[in-house]
Structures
1.
Amino acid sequence: MRCDTCGKRELVEIRMTVAGEELMFRRCGKCESQGWEGAGGSLTLSHVLDRARAH
Ligand SMILES: [Zn+2]
């Protein structure tokens, strides 16, 4: 995987389960851009937090 922002291949990927759904958290070690991805594609942080809060 490449970083969408800087194009470097220095992404840290962490899998975690939020509200029963497996999500991937990615953070770039170069430019520190962050993102979440679920089964349906990329998610915003507020979306992830809403989901976690709802359960
Ligand atoms: Zn980057």
2.
Amino acid sequence: MTVLEEYRARHPKSAALWERARAAIPGGITHDIRHLAPFPVYVERAQGTRKWDADGHEYIDYWMGHGALFLGHCHPAVVRAVQEQVARGTHLGACHELEVRWAELVNRLVPCAELTRFTMSGTEATHLAMRVARAFTGRSRIVKLAGHFHGWHDGAAVAVNPPYDVPMSAGIPGATLDQVLICPPNDVKAVEALLERGDVAAVILEPAGGQAGTTPTIPGYLHELRALTARHGVVLIFDEVITGFRYAPGGAQAYFGVTPDLTTLAKIVAGGLPGGALCGARAPMALLAFRGDADWDRSQRVAHAGTFNANPLSAAAAIATLEQCADASLQARANKLGDELRRGLAEAMRRADVPGTCYGEASIYHVSFEGKPGLAGFDRPRRGDAYHLLRCALLNHGVDCSTHHGWVSAVHTEEDVARTLAGYERAFGALAADGVFAGR
Ligand SMILES: Cc1ncc(COP(=O)(O)O)c(C=O)c1O
């Protein structure tokens, strides 16, 4: 059987759900990244490092809630905290103590955080960060690095995948895109040339490299960027939606020893429930506060609303999670397993004569058929069909991960890694048998 024949044969209930989904939901999916040809798998439940689909198959999970579940699925402390809170109220329509404790935890753990404001997603956090930076500097342009992802709002949906000069989406006004200046990653001189224009409010980047470290940051770059932005009075924003609390309790800024002005957070910050945050230095963050001066409050303050901001369920899950993440031992454990998995996968690819390699840092791994990207990232689109087929083959063999990377949690085990490597080996074999690597 080919990979896809086996996939279809193993997943009849998912196929049926997909047919219903396509009739009810545009494209059948609710996040572009869940697009999978020929159809996605429908998952019914999850626990620890495992999840089970509608056809009863078990998977070792490296999606881990798009990286949000650093403590794995249904961690007892998180379940308890959420269960207790759900019985006390899911939306109090008021300020509450949990949001205060949550902000205090973020301020204690994240080096740049003097003040924290909660949002409902990473997209909202980067949107707010740009607004704060613009208000703080009185300038309008944002420097964004090619290949870096900051969510889907109009001000960020550009230069995520090559070709970088084609916007990520239709429907974004040209005037909005004009406000974003694109720079190659790892090139401090290119940033400097843009800052010399004098109209740049902020530089935003994923500190460990674009798309969860797909194009890793070179040593020294962040330090140079910090010095350069400070010299030009430009706000430095680290988007730590992925790296926050994962690379270290204080995120990538603690891991690399570079403190930005503002940091955007989501995923782990909300303990696996919906949520995000913007935190940072007191001066820019204070622009969000009412001052009691009617003119200032109306025309100079940064406005921010959101029905579900800091909702108590997310706050409860977040506190239960961040209290455990405060001790660097969980990150050390996940990073060590990440090392083992990356080493094992790179060897498996070599042994099976699969083009490309496995690489990454901390608890994230990337499988690339194109090889590790150069300093400036991938200069051509990846072969999407090969990655789709790999995902299908992996799902046939009990492993689920994102299209080309995976997140190791603090609860994955050596046994999970061994079974994962075996699953990948079988998947690579199935791809080779389908002729995917022929002539490459
Ligand atoms: C670095 C980064 N920033 C922002 C976002 C957007 O976050 P959200 O999906 O919560 O809107 C993501 C999502 O994966 C991300 O990886």
